[in-house]
Every structure is written in C-alpha cells, then in structure tokens.
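Human:
I keep going back and forth on a fold encoding question. Comparing notes only helps if you start from a blank page. Show me how you would write down a chain together with its backbone fold. Write it directly below this note and I will take it from there.

Assistant:
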Amino acid sequence: MNVGDAAHRSGLPAKTIRYYEEIGLIRPARAGNGYRDYSGDDIHRLTFLRRARNLGFSIDDCRQLMALYHDHSRASHDVREIAAAHVTAIEEKVRELQSMRSTLQKLIHACHGDDRPDCPILDDIAGAALPGDKVGSAQM
C-alpha cells in the first residue's frame, strides 16, 4: 500500500511516516517503480509508534520500546524501566507546570487590569520585583 493508505490506516500523517522512515524507525519495502510499499507489519509498527508517541515517549524511547517489542527474549523489567523513567519525567514536568501556574496566578492577582500603563505581569517578565517580593520575580 502507498503512504496515503498507510497514513489512513495508522492514523499518522504521511509526513510523519516519511520522517520515521528517514530516521530508521520503519523500513517499508520498495515497489518495482521505487515507491514505498507498506505492509500490514509496517502499519502495525506505525500504530505502535503513534500510541507510544501519544503517551509522550521520545523518539529514542520509541526506538528502544520497538526493539524490545520485537525481542521475544526481552525482560519485562527493561520495558518497565523505560516506562518508569518516563513517568518520573512527566511528574517533573507537572511540577514545573504547577509552579508556572502559581506564578502566573500571583501575577494576575497583582495586576489591576485597568487603563493604567503599569503592569506587574510585564514587569515580572522583564525581571522587575513585585511589591513584597524579596529578590526579583516569583520563582518558577
């Protein structure tokens, strides 16, 4: 099947499929005319990659997960280790986002939101201290 059909069946854009081929995540056969010819196994790999990427795994993680998926002598511990490291990274990102939200909420509360030109939000972004701050802006 061609890349358009593969895109439709896998739920990935054709551009992403071509990128995955470029970086060696998939290797579709070539038809006699030189066009890519995607097999059912290629669609399965693409669907696997789509799901892994939707879970936030990096390309390198996807490469490792796919290798482990195809290695029937793998230890499930290896897969679990990759997933656990990913959860740790997600938790750190959540903490960073919560800190950013807290900072922005404080800045929004400090902003009068009227016709005056002074703006604590812009002052903070520029590095100026808010009234009551010890040193500089709120921590992120």
Q: What stands out?
A: Residues 23 and 59 are 9 Å apart (CA to CA).
